[in-house]
Write a structure and sequence with these properties.
elongated; alpha/beta; eight-stranded mixed sheet; binds magnesium ion; binds adenosine-5'-triphosphate; single chain; binds iron/sulfur cluster; disordered N terminus; about 25% strand
């Protein structure tokens, strides 16, 4: 896939601003830090990617932003989450009803957001009620059908009458996208929205999301292990490794000239024009076990550029020119 449009800069005020977010998972015998000082921002109408291998903390970040992180076992020990300039992270770790905040999420597995005991129609109606509680019944029915047509569902009446388990994975994802879209979120979080779907359906869903984004003017935070999908969709990207942001910047520039050796490794693992299904395969070694992180830079056992100080000192994320950031001793 090649990037469809020119990348946008100077996007104005941030819609979402996460600062220094630190999250632990705490069990009886140990505390595991899964996010450490993570700071990200999403501008209005911007599409921002968070990319990293399995276990790097991407979903924990998304769940914290949207307020559905299970606390316990998770505990937010530090940081702020600002949405439209207001702090939305409750330090008591209480769950927040995210749907009223203008943030909504499409999960990797659509069954997470679809209720198995209600028909598609009833769930769509509930979604419309959240966005437009006072809408007349007749108008609601029109909105429901229009929304399903927008996600390219042809047999709208047939789909409305069935239950989620009666649909294919691709159709379920379309329904969950339609449900979110009728609520017109200002920020849409997509957590691996196409993983597990076959390649053709993946591409259709991605094109669909991009087209609908233009219509509802949402900002998007895309969580993915697939650098190619991120390259296709995103304006900017954050690369995560072992719970930390290790690189960020304009998507095109990061892809053309990665600074962090891990980003280079990710890039080299995705041959151009070749889209993979399933997990990201990285040639050199496996992601670290967060319970036993290597000393210093957590990437050092896999890094061909590692030097002595990499094994003892953790590099901080530092701003470079052109809005790029990198956490690596090579740039100190
Ligand atoms: N409920 C939990 N209890 C303990 N540890 C957890 C829990 N949920 C997640 N973790 C740990 O937190 C770390 C980050 O998990 P997370 O799901 O955020 O990663 P991810 O980047 O989304 O991975 P994937 O690409 O596999 O979805 C992992 O090491 C995981 O084992
Ligand atoms: S800090 Fe050292 S080990 Fe870590 S990515 Fe940079 S060069 Fe490699
Ligand atoms: Mg995940």
């Amino acid at each position: 896939m090649s990037a469809p449009t020119s990348h946008r800069d100077n996007l104005g005020t941030n819609l979402l601003e996460v600062r220094d977010l630190t999250v632990n998972f705490e069990t009886v015998d140990r505390i595991v830090e899964v996010l450490k000082d993570v700071s990200i921002r999403v501008g209005r109408e911007e599409v921002v990617g968070v990319v990293g291998e399995s276990g790097s903390g991407k979903s924990t970040l998304a769940q914290t932003v949207i307020g559905v992180l299970d606390t316990p076992p998770a505990r937010i020990t530090k940081g702020t989450v600002g949405f439209e300039g207001k702090e939305i992270l409750q330090r008591s770790d209480k769950k927040i009803n995210f749907r009223g905040k203008g943030i909504n999420m499409i999960f990797q597995e659509p069954l997470t957001s679809l209720n198995p005991v209600y028909s598609v129609h009833d769930q769509m109606e509930e979604a419309v009620n959240i966005g437009e509680p006072k809408m007349e019944k007749k108008e609601k029915e029109t909105v429901i059908r229009k929304s399903l047509r927008e996600v390219m569902i042809r047999d709208v009446e047939g789909v409305l009458n069935v239950y989620p388990h009666q649909l294919s994975g691709g159709m379920r994802q379309r329904v969950s996208i339609a449900m979110v879209l009728v609520q017109k979120p200002k920020l849409l979080i997509l957590d691996e929205p196409t993983t597990g779907l076959d390649l053709i359906v993946q591409r259709k869903i991605i094109s669909l999301i991009l087209n609908l984004k233009k219509e509802i003017l949402s900002s998007i935070l895309l969580i993915t292990h697939d650098l190619e999908v991120a390259a296709y969709m995103c304006d900017r990207v954050y690369v995560m490794y072992a719970g930390r942001v290790v690189e960020s910047g304009n998507m095109k520039e990061v892809l053309q000239r990665p600074l962090h050796p891990y980003t280079t490794m990710l890039k080299n693992s995705v041959p151009e024009g070749y889209a993979k299904e399933g997990s990201l395969k990285v040639s050199s070694g496996a992601p670290p076990d967060l319970r036993h992180l290597p000393s210093g830079c957590a990437f050092h056992p896999r890094c061909q550029s590692a030097k002595d100080e990499c094994r003892s000192k953790i590099p901080e994320l530092k701003a470079k020119k052109d809005g790029r950031e990198v956490a690596c001793w090579l740039y100190e």
